[in-house]
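My current task is to audit a protein record that another person submitted. Alongside the sequence sits a line of tokens, each denoting a local backbone shape. Please read both lines and tell me whether the tokens look consistent with the sequence. Do not assume that whoever made the record got everything right. Thanks in advance; the entry in question is below.
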Amino acid sequence: MYTPWQPGAFRSARKYRMRLAWSVWVVATIFVLFQFFLQLSSGEIIDGLMKSFALTALGGGVLASSYYYIYVSLQIPAGLLMDRYGPRGILSLGALFVCLGCLLFSAAKTLPFALIGRILMGGGAAFAFVGCLNVIGIWFPKKQFALMTAIVETAGMIGAILGNFWIAIVIHRIGWRNCIFFAGLFSAVLTILLFFIVRNAPTQKRMPSVKKETISLIHGLRILLRKKVVWINGIYLGILFCVVTTFTALWAIPFLEVSRHLTLLNASMIAATLYAGVGIGGPILGWLDARTKWRREILIINAFFAALFLFFVIFDTQLSLLMLSILLFLTGVCSSGYILTFAIANDISTTSNHATCIGFTNMLCVILAPIFQPLIGFLVTWMNHRAGLTANLNQSIPHFQWAISLIPFSLVFATGLAFFLPKK
């Protein structure tokens, strides 16, 4: 008689569990990539928004950026909800909100409805990355966490390289409203996939009472916020991620245009080499982290060399375009060390506040970008004003260089912070 205790049954159960784990991870990762698409679409649709709703540049910027404000503010609540209810229902609900937001946003004829739709999109997307990392923490061994997270980020960087060109073509052919409408339909399909494929845990566990669990979550959050290492880890992450969000995504292209006299297309292609560096460096560092105990050393070295390479990029205007591209690529490789900070968040969290810790860390990751982005612009304007120059960047290359050097100087500070991060 064949019983479940026979070796064949164990092997069959293990294979089934691994297939389920990979299925859960894949569909959660698709949600993350879709969130990247929604973020990338902001720059492409802003011109259409201004024309459709008769907005100024400021009004269009506020409408587009409302996605990010709600996204940042919901990171901790997203983690708390994941810890309380598990990723399945929360990810499905998040994708549903994105669907409703896209449909409302694409059909909006007035500004208030467009704003509500944009907020729903950002609110639903806020659960994607936290949920995906929570799924990795639940379904895969700890030693694989950094590598799996790196693969997700690599896919996002590939999307960042290809997405700008693809989105521009689609919006040019069918318009921004139709583009967002089809995104809403895709989100509806994604909602169904998340609900039927994602599972909260490999084995069914009895859930504690809501009152007891709520008290535990609040207590876990308080303990989390009192840990210095959580703040140090998040600030280090935020600084390294600003290389992507502040330098590359916003200021690198205009800086290369004025300092190297490049066309927009050439400047965009050279800046994209940094994305490629992040995409390639992330899995390599994740692989090293899984097989060595050098985590702290890697974090120190990465921040230091990212700062060094960026200083050369910013201040050595005689570099050839090939060397410039190589240095930006190496900067991206070093900056990809931020992947390991999520592994630290995974390690220092407990079962009761795992997703909360990741959500708080991700909040610190993205919250520095809206601070650094306008700060660099303010520094350029301020230095120009003191020198009696206009706001034209072509007349103030030295001022532009010193303002944008805020990023590598911050990386030097992050190098010092890395000494206080835990070893593996």
User: Anything to note?
Assistant: The CA atoms of residues 93 and 191 lie 7 Å apart. The chain has two domains: 20-207, 228-424. Residues 205-212 have pLDDT under 50 and may be disordered.
